[in-house]
Each structure stands twice: as structure tokens, then as C-alpha cells.
Amino acid sequence: IVDTDAQGRRFLSREYVQPQWIFDSVNARIVLPMENYIVGRIPPPHLSPFVNYDEEGSIPDYSKIIKNLQDAAR
């Protein structure tokens, strides 16, 4: 987990992701795919665990993707 792409050396055996990946994975209660969180990419929008998007009437696209991943993990 790194905050910037300024690390001097990279190891091919490691995946480098942004810290948001941890929080989003914990909130989703599954290990989310890392490709959206690779260092240097703009990460997906952060979804608050305190908002019920169904009640709000507007479900973000990334919330739908996470829901599909959660269903597949069961």
C-alpha cells in the first residue's frame, strides 16, 4: 500500500495499491479487485458506509458493481 508513485524501486512480485482500497474493501466486507486502485490511477468514488443509497433514491454505479461482487462472493 503506497500513497504516491514516488517509490524508488518496484518489485514485480508485489501489487501496489492506494490506501482507499483497504477502506473500500473493509466497508464492502469483501476483497475488492485491485486494478481500480493501482497507484497512478484515479480510484473509484468513495462510498460512505453510513449512507443507505437505496433510501436516498440514487444508487451510484460503483455501488452496483460492489453489490454484484458481494453476491458473487456468497
From TrEMBL:
InterPro entries: BRCT_dom, BRCT_dom_sf, PES
Top-level taxon of origin: Eukaryota
Residues covered by the BRCT domain: 15-39
Keyword Cell membrane included in the entry's annotation: no
Keyword Nucleus in record: yes
GO aspect biological process, one term: maturation of LSU-rRNA from tricistronic rRNA transcript (SSU-rRNA, 5.8S rRNA, LSU-rRNA)
GO cellular component, one term: PeBoW complex
Classification via Gene3D superfamilies: BRCT domain
GO terms of molecular function: RNA binding
Keywords, alphabetical: Nucleus, Ribosome biogenesis, rRNA processing
Localization terms from the record: Nucleus
This protein's name: Pescadillo-like protein
